[in-house]
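call fold target=Transposable element Tc3 transposase
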Amino acid sequence: MLTRFSNFHNILFSDEAHFHLNGHVNKQNCRYWSSENPKAKHERPLHSPKVTVWAAISAKGIIGPYFFEDSRGRSVTVNSAEYVKMLREFLAPMLLEFAGYNRNTWFQQDGATCHTSNESLPVVKDMFPEKLISRRGDIPWPPRSPDLSPADFFLWGYLKSRVYIDKPNTLRQLKEKIIEEMSAISRSLCRRVFENFRTRLDECKNRNGGHLDEIIFKK
């Protein structure tokens, strides 16, 4: 990435996340770097109501949110068919309205099976010919890399810190709050996120792929 791009302003980083109705802020999956087991526990109902959200973020703004749900508004599993449906029915028309998109725009996705299956990958490659950052793409994206993806290290944590302030009581309220808070994210904030992205790439290179703890936890 550092040798291929002089800047990262024309890349869309995409991802999905679950927002539970009884949710709390958890910026990334729990990790504990300690010599002892902290034995930390987070209790919540086994089948907490949730919505599954997709979005793409660039230095020029955000596309989304898109909710993976059926005709009755119920959350559905993100499989290849649902991902292709989102690409064709939501992302494709949204790109035409997005000021940050042009024929040179790159698209990033992680290596989830629904993204890289034989059914979905040709659709993504057709939308972004020779400009796909992904497993089986034009530039490979490393697995297990939440320290690097702007959606992981910024977008989802920031949104949850805003969405859950008012403690939505219904899925409808939860979705409305997600839409409201995502639309309120400014382009200037997105630009700052992508300035941090370069710092993370540099640090990842310096650490030979190790954890970016000094960046993650710095004040």
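return ok
The chain has a mean pLDDT of 88. The two ends are 26 Å apart (CA to CA).
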